[in-house]
Each structure stands twice: as structure tokens, then as C-alpha cells.
Amino acid sequence: MSRHSLDAKRLLCPLPVIRTQDKVKQLKSGDQLEVSCTDPGVMQDIPAWCRINGHTIMSTQENQGVYIIVLEVGKNE
Amino acid sequence: MSEPKKAVALISGGLDSMLAAKTILDQGIHVEGINFFTGFCVEGHTHAIRKKDNEKAKPKRNNALWAAEQLGIKLHIVDVIEEYKDVLLNPKHGYGANLNPCLDCKIFMVNKAKQWIEENGFDFIITGEVVGQRPMSQRRFAMPLVAERSGADDLLLRPLSARNLPETKPEREGWVDRSKLHDFGGRTRRPQIAMAEQYGFIDYAQPAGGCCFLTDKSYSQKLVDLWQARGAREYELDDVMLLKVGRHIRPKPHFKLIIAREEGEGRFMEGYKNDFISLHCSSHTGPLALIDGSPDAADLELAAAIIARYSKGKDEEQVEMAIRTKDGKESRIKTRPLTAEQLPKEWFI
């Protein structure tokens, strides 16, 4: 298991979701990805994307307009 | 025993694509969704930008993701921004009422879906198209055209209108039961609404004017203005996004102002302060404005007077305006805000 990060700041949804999706494709099951965004819509969209694609949200937080979501990659099929 | 068949459904986030996918899921087919992001999708951007949307009781959501979750299917969102430029700039079948190349757009998306099923080992494509539902891409003659020109041919199944259309391979081969597909047609929404009720789909998206900014007259005018001002029909994603926000005022051919209409837009436009000269009223509360173009000193004075009109100091004799260059140097000028009468209607794009 390894930890990765993705800077999706300044992008508006659905681009942060697309970048997350593309990054997750390169990772292995159990890897964690920390995504940093500025569009508050990601707090809704990335968890929804994770739910339908079998990944797990580990944490979400907001700090001065930056939204940080950590997810764990499920089965990448 | 033969392998279970797999279909990819074009999911826009609207009701029809959702019902089409559900119809095929009910026949035991493995369905996954695909959604193409062109840059012009109403979905997402505007909801994220505008404060008034943030304050609505409903949380912001991406309707394609929501639809996929309701259906219990995976959704693949594909960035087609670059490839889509050719569709918009050179539509073989022309535009609709505005800059919407609906027929070319549908052909493009079905073609992309065809590529996707080939790469991912899927068997056929489904869409929520209904014969006669929309004026351009869903006219009766357009349906076979989309199938043919996309290269999908008889691998393209429209479950909501299938019994009004020639048999496709999934029906012919018995992968799906044609008798359980639908025969919807025309502009009525009643059958879809009844079906949504039957499945318990409530709160589905019903975007007024469709899901694409290119169907919007005002948006299309701004895009044409952008091309005219640049002397070239070209655009980048940032252009597309900035056309969605603010008042656009072009006092002279070589520059225009983008003035935030509310806090959410202002916050979004803050992200562009290193790409454009920006102004705001420093003596009173007022919106952020970006200047697209190459204004000289006199132009900046005019811009300041226009932008001051949208500040709380609009009725004052004089207000102070802060001008920030792209590299962050700030200067201040005093100006008298223009009155409504001094702002010609022709300046508004």
C-alpha cells in the first residue's frame, strides 16, 4: 500500500472527479490517494464517484477554501 | 454457457438516459455508464460557481453520478474537451437555434462510446434517445444517421424507442428481448414520467434548456463575440468557463469586462487574477472585474467608471478603484461611476 497525492485545485467539477478517476486507474487496491481541490462540489461528487466505483472515502476536510479528500482504492477492474 | 453481455450507457444525468439504462439492466445485462465532459456541460460548473446555488436547500450534485448511483452502475467520466473543439467549430450537420451542433455532438459521443466498448470488451451501446423528442438529433431521420456515421451501426440500441426503430444486433441475437423494450415517440414526457414513478426515481434532473450551454442564446452570443474579438474561431477551457460567469461588457473592440454578479462568481474569478488585469472598487463594496484584451490607460479609466457603476458607490460623485496588473502590481484611480444611461445597451454581450 502506498500513499499518493493529486492537486486538483482551481478545477471545477467534474474535472476533479475525472483527474481522480484517471489517477486511481494507475493505483493498486489498498493504495491511498489524497486529492486537494478548491471546488466545494467535490465534497459531493468525489464521494459519490467512490461509492459507485467501489472505493472508500477515508477522510474529508476543508481548510481555508481547500478541500482535501483521502480515498482508498478498492478493486480496480 | 455464453458470457453475460455487457452494455455501456451514455448517461447525461437526465431522466431518459437513466430509464434507458434501467430498461436494459432489468434484462440482466451488465451495464456501465459513460459520460462525456465537453466543457460546455451545464452540469457542475455553474452550480459550483454561483453562490445562490450554494444556498439552495438541495446539496450540489453531479447528476450523471447521481443517476449512476440510483441505477447501481459504475460511471466513467471522459474528458473530451480537446476533441470536442472540432465538433463545435466544424459541424458537418450545422448548428441548431444557437451554437449547438446537436447532431454532430451525438454522432461524436456515440463514436467515442463505440471506441470505448472496443477497448473495454463490451458488446453494445445504449442511449436515452427518443424518436421525435428533440428538434435536431432525435428527429426520425437523424436516428439511423447517428448509428451509421458514428460507426456504431446496429450496436446502438435506444431502449426507449426501440420498437419504433429497426431491429439492432442485441435484439436480433437475443441478447435483449425486443418485446420488453419501449415504443416512446414524440415530444410528450408522460411515458417517461410514469416509468420514473414506477421505478421510484424521484428528484431527477430536469434542466431547463437542456444540459449544454451551447443551446443558450446568450452564451452563444458571448462565444461568437469572443471569436470576433480574437479574429479566430478558437477557444480554451478557461474561455469556456469565463463565458459562464459575470456580466460581459465590451466598450471597445479590443477589450471587454467580465464583472462578477455575486460573491460566488467573484470568488471563482479571483483564480484568474494572474491571467487578466483586474479591478475592484476600493472605497466601497463592489464586484471583482477582469479585463480581457489590451486596454490602454484611457481604456482603464473607462473600465473603472463602468465597474464603479456596479459598486455600492454608484451614486457617489467619485469612488476609488484598485487596478491590479497580471503580475500583482496595484494602483488606484478615482472615477465617477457611469450612470445607467451612460452605459449603451450595445456594449452588453
Keyphrases for this structure?
heterodimer; A: Translation Initiation Factor IF3; B: 349 residues; alpha/beta; Rossmann fold; 2 domains; 5-stranded parallel beta sheet; 13 helices; elongated
Describe this structure in words.
The complex is a heterodimer of chains A (77) and B (349). Helix content of chain A is 30%, strand content 35%. With 77 residues, chain A is of the alpha+beta class. Chain A has a single domain, classed as TusA-like domain (Translation Initiation Factor IF3, 2-Layer Sandwich). In chain A, strands 1-2-4-3 form a four-stranded mixed sheet, with helices on one face. In chain A, strand 3 (56-63) and strand 4 form a beta hairpin. Chain A is globular. The two termini of chain A are 17 Å apart. The longest helix of chain B has 19 residues, at 102-120. Chain B folds into two domains: 6-212, HUPs (Rossmann fold, 3-Layer(aba) Sandwich); 245-347, no CATH class. Chain B is elongated and about 80 Å long. In chain B, the strands form two sheets. In chain B, strands 6-7-9-8-10-11 form a six-stranded antiparallel sheet, with helices on one face. A five-stranded parallel sheet of chain B has the order 3-2-1-4-5, with helices on both faces. Chain B contains 13 helices and eleven strands. In chain B, strand 6 (247-252) and strand 7 (255-259) form a beta hairpin. Chain B has 349 residues and is α/β, with parallel strands linked by helices. In chain B, helix 6 packs across helix 7 (142-150). Chain A binds chain B through residues 10, 12-15, 17-18, 21, 38-41, 44-45, 48-49, 51-53, and chain B through 35, 37, 41, 43-45, 47-49, 54, 59-62, 64-66, 68-69, 72-79, 241, 268, 271.
